[in-house]
Amino acid sequence: MRSRATSNSARAQWLLEKKNADLKALVKTAGAEERCDKTNNASMRAALRATAKDAGELGLAVSEVSLAKEEGKTILKQLREQLPLFVLFRADRPSTDQDAEVQDPMKIAVRAALEELAPQIDALKQRVREKSIEVANRTLDKLHDFDPRLADSLSPEFADPKLDGAFKLSLVGDNDIAVNKRGSGVRRLVLFSFFRAEAERLQAESKGRGIIYAVEEPETAQHPNFQRRVVNALEDLAAQEGRQVLLTTHSPGVAGLLPTAALRFVQAVDVGSLVRSGDEVVADIASTLGVIPDHRVRIFVCVEGPHDRAFLQAVCAAYRAAGEDFVCLESDPAVAFVLLGGSTLTEWVKSNLLEHTNIPEFHLYDSDVSRYGESVAQVQARGAPHSARMTAKLEMENYLDPAVITATIQSAAEEVGLIAFGDQDDVEAIVAAAIPDQNGNPRKKLAKRSLKHWLNRDVARAMTAEQWDARDPAGEIREWLSQITELARAV
After folding, report:
1. b vs e for 92-125, b when ≥16 Cβ sit within 10 Å of the residue's Cβ?
2. Residues 277, 231: contact at Cβ < 8 Å?
3. Over 50: is that where the pLDDT of 20 sits?
4. How far apart are CA 433 and CA 444, in angstroms?
5. Considering only 27-31, 60-64, 163-167, 478-482, which range has the smallest mean pLDDT?
């Protein structure tokens, strides 16, 4: 570990490694005894640094501090308590007898439960050991009456049981098929879910430390539909407070689901790797991976980001539940969402990066950014079958029902009055002001998620087709879904 040490003052150099007696001597020499508590090492170090600074002797230089030594270990412990937890989910886990969770993800759940209860289990083992040895010794005493030599040759020996083999836990489906008999894709989803749950438990026990999920190739062994669900789940995680998600992929389908601002292009160079980001690498990523997830794609639905995609998927699901024959925006392979990433939207449209695919594009943008009007005009200028439009209301959140927002907030155990807003109002700001924090400030998060995430997913999912129609008497939303469906089913 690197630290700052003084180059001009020997008494302040390597203070972290000085013992109490050494620090007392340095304090005395520096005349800093009145500035510190000599029973406290930290106080003496602070006084020495302050004295050196006052004398103009605190020239700092970078020095190495060993974390293997006593004080270094203390520093490392304190640093670890501040650093976020890091959870790595590998793409290719070794499949050996020692890695039983690959065969059955629930085995690791049993092992984790036993580890958590280790103190109680050890106490129980000790009691069983004492009682069983007591019975064995009484038995040997009685045996001594019959054959002293035989009795003296025997002694009780207690072997600790292997409890992880004594407990059986399985996840069984509707057809009584255990999860360990399912395909590798299903087992991987269960195992990933287990690691997520364990990581969140550790975070809660560590008093709110952040957590970083590192996921290698989430598409491994997954059907394209489940790839989308996995990516959506990871986006939900990333939107929560104190969480960050890093993932690697070689799949164009997965890369196409991510915001362009979040993409990093890693290239091998002569020494190490080169990591590139920004608008200029979007075309390189598209060229390297290919834009189309599979040959069944018939329409690109181009929106600003994941919240807009979640909104459209929610409203489509509501209309389909009411019997409308719209294409399923969550699972139909004919539809591929392209998240233009807000600030990179203009570059995508100007460069026409999807042109070589010859697939129709349906662009939908919020009307809160006036310059998007130019992008709409450029797409429209290409002619059919491409089309673009902006929402008549300020943002997609303005199509939500205020009463449903209020009810959903109250279901999250938050007290709030009836929320009201107009077609051109900032809904997120109004909701934030309606549920202030303890200091009376507008709240930007609810249940550890951003309000925008919460509005476009939780609230949108709670609305019915009738409520959508009531909030959209002009039929904008139905027109969007009708055109997407027509292009997705075109022969």
Report:
1. eeeeeeeebbbebbbbbbbeeeeeeeeeeeeeee
2. no
3. yes
4. 9
5. 60-64
Q: What is the pLDDT of residue 13?
A: 46
Residues 6+ apart with CB under 8 A from 386: 360, 361, 362, 363, 379, 380
Which three-class secondary structure string do you get for the chain?
Answer: CEEEEECCCHHHCCHHHCCHHHHHHHHHHHCCHHHCCCCCHHHHHHHHHHHHHHCCCCCEEEEECCCCCHHHHHHHHHHHHHCCEEEEECCCCCCCCCCHHHCCHHHHHHHHHHHHCHHHHHHHHHHHHHHHHHHHHHHHHHHHHHCHHHHHHCCCCCCCCCHHHCCCCCCECCCCCEHHHCCHHHHHHHHHHHHHHHHHHHHHHCCCCCEEEEEECCCCCCCHHHHHHHHHHHHHHHCECCEEEEEECCCHHHHHHCCHHHCCEEEECCCCEEEECCHHHHHHHHHHHCCCCCCCCCEEEEECCHHHHHHHHHHHHHHHHCCCCCCCCCCCCCEEEEECCHHHHHHHHHHCCCHHHCCCEEEEECCCCCCHHHHHHHHHHCCCCCEEEECCCCCHHHHCCHHHHHHHHHHCCCCCCCCCCCCCCCHHHHHHHHCCCCCCCCCCEECCEEHHHHHHHHHHHHCCHHHHHHHCCCCHHHHHHHHHHHHHCCC
Cα–Cα dist 53/45, whole Å = 12
CB neighbours of residue 30 within 10 Å: 20
Q: Is pLDDT of 98 > 90?
A: no
**Torsions phi, psi for 428 (to 5 deg):** -60, -45
CB-CB neighbours of 259 under 10 Å:
15
Q: Kindly indicate the confidence band of residue 475, based on its pLDDT and cuts at 50, 70 and 90.
A: very high
Percent of the chain with pLDDT over 90: 18
Asked if pLDDT for residue 414 goes beyond 80, the answer is no
Say yes or no to pLDDT of 181 above 70.
no
- 294-298: average pLDDT: 72
Residue that has been written with the tokens 């010794």 in this structure: 137
